[in-house]
Amino acid sequence: MELGDYVRILRKRGWVILLIAVIAAASAFAFSKMQVVVYRSSIRLNVIPGRLDWGLQQTIKGLMRNYSGEIKSRDSAGRVISRQQLDLTVDDLLSKMTVSPIESDFLMQIDVDDIDPQRAQLIAQTAAEIFVEDKRVQMLDQDKRDRVDVTIRDSATLASVFWPKTRLLVLAGWLAGLLAGALVAVGLERLAADMVRQARDIERYSGLTVLGTIPVATSLEKGNS
Question: Pick from 29, 1, 22, 26: which is nearest to 180 by CA?
């Protein structure tokens, strides 16, 4: 098919494409409204070496992955639950938490997802505070030049909606609908092209010349019945 064919299909069956796109976008919107709303609160920790030494800095980057495991340990989760008197099991709390080391910036980010925005913020803040407290105690026996200072960069953010991402879902539905609609429109056009409606269609498919046609019989007039 040439470009002109697609333009002709668009003019002729553009309404089909738009209709399917609208239906898909509306379906995506309805799907998003049926989802349980999940909120996310985040907090970042500074992980600063005691001296500007390349070797120590590389060591810290390796330690940060270990630090992530410490924050998400069952012991730390239990202490968060105990300190804030949360009605959660350790496994429940750990399933809500994600810890990501940002090695290039010597940062660690804690993300907590929960259906309760206040609880998400509380868990993130408490988990960070407990980890900072532990590191400070551990560093007391270290020489100042070999210490790793862990501090809270900012307090945990106010929890905002993390899921569902309604706008993204609607946009994805709209684009998917446009694609599906275009495929349907092209398919309909191909089916229509294969149908024999006029004499020239027979000549095109068979290569033979039509010499005559049989007229369609019409009903008799009422007066002659």
Answer: 22
